[in-house]
Write a structure and sequence with these properties.
CATH superfamily of the largest domain: Vaccinia Virus protein VP39
CATH class of the largest domain: Alpha Beta
CATH topology of the largest domain: Rossmann fold
Distance between the termini: 39 Å
Radius of gyration: 20 Å
Number of domains: 2
Order of helices and strands: HHHHHEHEEEHEHHHEEEE
Number of helices: 10
Number of strands: 9
Helix content: 40-55%
Length: about 270
């Protein structure tokens, strides 16, 4: 993580993706992002180590305090739209990788769900919903088997080291007619992974208020996969895909929905 900007610049394969994402966010002085600005930015990327680049960019860009709240409303609305299109009744849900719970609570509110959980590896202080602190084994004994209709895992599975155990636990708690909604990156190669790492760093160290993780460069880990690799993994653990929405973009993000495979009334093992 020490020289990812430099590696991206040298490879030059996804530098335009980075510049596009930087252009999406507001500068403090609202100056027009002209050619001179971008040339200076490219010089910074080529010259300094990552830590200094993030520090320089944080001085340049605005930080939005309400970002997580707005994100919760927007992301929940997208998930609701998918669930509605599938005509599935939801009466219980788990938001896996819930962060501060903004998406969790918005999903429960819009779906009118009374039984809902949020799970994350970072402890929440005074959560106002059923919060599960995930341990290394990713088990969730607080949730009964086959008791959850909806599992939301939005941009979180690529952070999970023990993904096999997580999918086994999903299989245990999801009801026979339940669904798992995921949003993931289609990671094309190691250079795209490099770009995604930087993008996560920008959200954590540059655009967030307060700064999400001052030790991001040291702490960050990711296990990206290609879209077909994610699909094969879910199929291996007994799930079938019933919804897929993938529009090529700067970050190659897509939505997919999975449900347990049931054959003659019996779940596939």
């Amino acid at each position: 993580m020490r020289h990812q900007f430099y590696l991206l610049y040298q490879n030059n394969k996804y530098i335009d993706n980075l510049l596009t994402k930087l252009a999406d966010h507001k500068l403090k002085n609202n100056n027009k992002k002209d050619k001179i600005y971008w040339n200076k930015l490219l010089l910074i990327i080529n010259k300094y180590p990552d830590k200094k680049i993030y520090r320089i960019l944080r001085k340049i860009y605005k930080h939005e305090e309400q970002f997580s709240l707005n994100r919760g409303i927007v992301m929940a609305s997208r998930i609701i739209k998918i669930v509605t299109s599938l005509n599935i009744k939801i009466n219980s849900l788990l938001d896996y990788g819930c962060s501060n719970g903004s998406i969790t609570k918005e999903l429960a509110k819009q779906l009118n769900v009374k039984l809902f959980y949020g799970a994350d590896i970072i402890k929440l202080e005074r959560p106002d919903f059923n919060f599960i602190l995930l341990k290394d084994n990713n088990l969730m004994p607080e949730i009964k088997s086959k008791s959850i209709n909806l599992i939301n895992a939005s941009m979180v599975l690529h952070h999970v080291k023990n993904i096999d155990q997580t999918l086994k636990e999903f299989k245990r708690i999801i009801s026979d007619n339940g669904i798992i909604v995921i949003r993931e990156h289609d990671c094309l190669d190691k250079y795209f992974a490099n770009f995604l790492d930087i993008l996560h760093g920008l959200y954590s160290l540059v655009w967030s208020k307060p700064m999400e993780d001052p030790n991001f460069i040291k702490n960050y880990k990711a296990y990206y996969k290609k879209e077909d690799e994610w699909n094969k993994l879910f199929k291996y653990y007994g799930f079938q895909r019933i919804y897929f929405d993938y529009k090529k973009s700067t970050i190659n993000a897509y939505y997919a929905v999975y449900t347990p495979i049931i054959i003659n009334g019996i779940r596939k093992l």
